[in-house]
Specification:
Blueprint: H1 4-11, E1 18-24, E2 29-35, H2 42-58, E3 65-66
Parallel strand pairs: 2-3
Antiparallel strand pairs: 1-2
Length: 67
């Protein structure tokens, strides 16, 4: 598996957000921090979640919850 930060950044390249951080936490939590010049909205979070869920499934990224 490629570096998780690089994989996530590439997956979000077509979206209008900036990847700030990717963190693995306890109990399978995968926390992705994003930013947007005008502030992050629920719409941005929804887009990112949908995109990453698909990419992580294809790339076999092991996590239980995406935040």
């Amino acid at each position: 598996m490629a570096d998780l930060f690089v994989l996530t950044k590439e997956a979000l390249a077509g979206l209008d957000v900036e990847l700030v951080d990717v963190e693995r936490a306890a109990l399978g939590l995968l926390r992705v921090t994003i930013d947007h010049p005008e502030g992050v909205t629920i719409h941005h979070c929804h887009q990112v979640s949908n995109q990453l869920s698909r990419v992580f499934e294809v790339e076999n990224v092991d996590y239980k919850r995406l935040e």
